[in-house]
Amino acid sequence: MTTKSRADRASATALPESELALFRRQQAFAPSLRSTTARERIDKLERLGAALRARQREIERAAAEDFGKPPEEVALSELFPVLHEIAHAKRHLKKWMKPRRVPPTMAMFGTRAEVRYVPRGVCLIVSPWNYPFNLSFGPLVSAIAAGNTAILKPSELTPSCSRLIAAIVADTFAPDEVAVVEGNAEVASRLLALPFNHIFFTGSTTVGRIVMKAAAEHLSSVTLELGGKSPFIVDASADLDRTVRNLVGTKFANKGQTCVAPDLVYVHESVREDFLARLKARIAHVYGADAQAQRASPDYARVVNTRHFERVKGLLDDALARGARLVAGGDTDAASRFIAPTVLTDLAPGSRILEEEIFGPLLPVIGYRNLDAVIREIDARPTPLALYVFGRDRKRIEKVLAGTVSGGSCVNHSVVHFLHGNLPFGGLNASGIGNAHGVHGFRAFSHERAVLVDRFSIAHLLFPPYTPRVKALIRMTARYFT
Questions:
Q1: Which is catalytic among the residues 225, 310, 355, 448?
Q2: Active site residue 225
Q3: From CA 478, how far away is CA 463, in angstroms rounded?
Q4: Average pLDDT of 61-69?
Q5: pLDDT on residue 1
Q6: Which domain of life is it from (predicted)?
Q7: Which of 142, 168, 156, 160 is nearest to 203 (CA)?
Q8: What's the pTM value of the predicted model, to 2 decimals?
């Protein structure tokens, strides 16, 4: 395959071009990628990795401009996952691409069979604003590894990040292979109207339904990474210091704007007050003891925009109006889109914070005595993207895992399962469809093609005309192989 010079690629990307024309170019180019080798695909991944490393400071500045994300958090949560995904794919791609032999069933004796991984074709990756680089380039790694072309649509809510994503892609790929289309929801709707072979969407459950309806028009396959209220269960046997360390570190990173962040904490009544005291102390240690210190913290991001600030503040105001007890935080500042790390307990039934996905730095804590009641409550809600359980009692931990359903789960940790390259990452029903990361991402962007080669099978003996002899063979076959 001929690779265009950087100047040619940038020039081509700058041309005014409709979404349909860009799609058609990729559609025409996609068949040539089916025969690419692992080495050719790895070369592309290495180019992407080099581009991301070279522009790390620009990436950090863009994330700071859009929502005040600390540079260390950008390195850890935006760049590291993508570079890790690239490294993992480079090590294993040759094995992933190799046809997988499968043994014959008894009825297929005399044949040889295998599964081949075929690129799906032209793919659309629609990414959200909360982790714009991670959730744009992570799926792109899988799409490239599987041999596809791709159009990326980053979120318009983080414009600095979106512009930089477009620049990185234009510098690294020819537009007939990978391109970025920027714009608002109207642009996204136009893209969704095109007959993509696969759509990978990360975002809210509400928009996920829209994406799935659009995909159905063309029978496009989809991967939906959505969200939900991820529960965090604290057993009476839990190491409380370890628990609050993990909770604060994963809940309030990125201002709580994380799809797998703990959204609802259930803590056993026997340790609830001790847990709350330690949680408050840990927040003070990490972000500062009061609102003034927290506003000045270089480690605390901001809510992405005014609309989301008002939505999260509305959840807080509703909970307090219904009599919730404020354990920590509660301070807000609209001008800087600041909401303090906030912990609430004694929440009234019907509070919005108990029903809606928070996607912000509010943490509702519910005491419990009966673990079965907690499991029933979790099962009564839409399936969450993640579930976390902390404790040292293996029997109760297994009871939670066996009695609940979630996209993924962690025991005595939270969120980090996202980074495990050998684990599937994905949701179920309201929290998503399909999996991502590692070989699971490669397969999401691949069609598993069945290939059967006849060697000396006897299936032809069952063909018509249905003479008495053939009928007898059919009856014997049905008895023997079923």
A1: 225
A2: yes
A3: 14
A4: 96
A5: 42
A6: Bacteria
A7: 156
A8: 0.93
